[in-house]
Amino acid sequence: MVKQKEAWSNGWQMNQEEAANRMELRIMPLSENESFARVAVAAFMTQLDPTLEEVEDVKTAVSEAVTNSIIHGYENKGGDKPVIIEAYLTHRRIHIKIEDRGVGIDDIGRAMEPLFTTKPELERSGMGFAFMEAFMDELHVESKQGRGTVVYMSKQIGGQ
Amino acid sequence: MEKMFMVKDGWLTITMPEEMDHHKAEEIREGADDYLLTGKVLHVIFDFSNTKFMDSSGIGVIAGRYKKVSCYGGKVVAAHANSRIRKIIMLSGLTDLIEIVD
Ligand SMILES: Nc1ncnc2c1ncn2[C@@H]1O[C@H](COP(=O)(O)OP(=O)(O)O)[C@@H](O)[C@H]1O
Ligand SMILES: [Mg+2]
Fold first, then answer.
1. Which CATH number is B5-101 given?
2. Which helix (H) or strand (E) holds A39?
């Protein structure tokens, strides 16, 4: 578990050094910022000349992860702690990391099951992770209760 | 601006926003439920004519209204959804519960 965790964040750091371009965005955990975050990443990825469908896939996945940080990670309470959205581009691939310092997830496997939600009273559908999985090539989640959650995703763009 | 809610002959038509995300979900949910509580509405139509983006928050809004009207025999319809919105609805499994029309 710990080993794999280190492998993922190390991999992110190492690959980032070879990136052609990268971005970082910090937002307050407010629902107003959900569209800003997904549109920013979508605009950033146009450098890879993506298809419309690829743009929509990435927008949906970013929206799911950022929304999760806001409503689950920070429990819809706003506050000073940020949601941090990072992305970098390598040859024909976008790599995305979305991080919060919120409550964390106790059982990641269960959280990622389609239809599972801890907030049915807010009419959450439990499909967020399922959509991230469906629309991206790679999805990896790290979390620690009381510390926060990091979602890593990547997707090949163009030239399939 | 079109009105977001319209009632006619027992059907509530909800004009969905351009971007159907968590930020918009609460407004639609509360507005729709005010109409459902009047007792004059049996069925719900979600009109996606203007909608370019939807994530799983939109699925939650549709499924929530379905739960409310289906116990009185009401129907839920998604109209004028583009191919992207249809894909999202399909992936969620809601196609078994609601009707999709052009
Ligand atoms: N950033 C996060 N911080 C804390 N909990 C999270 C986070 N992201 C997801 N979760 C947990 O995982 C569950 C499933 O997430 P998801 O598939 O997006 O469904 P939903 O958001 O509809 O509940 C959530 O209900 C929540 O309990
Ligand atoms: Mg979610």
1. 3.30.750.24
2. helix A33-45
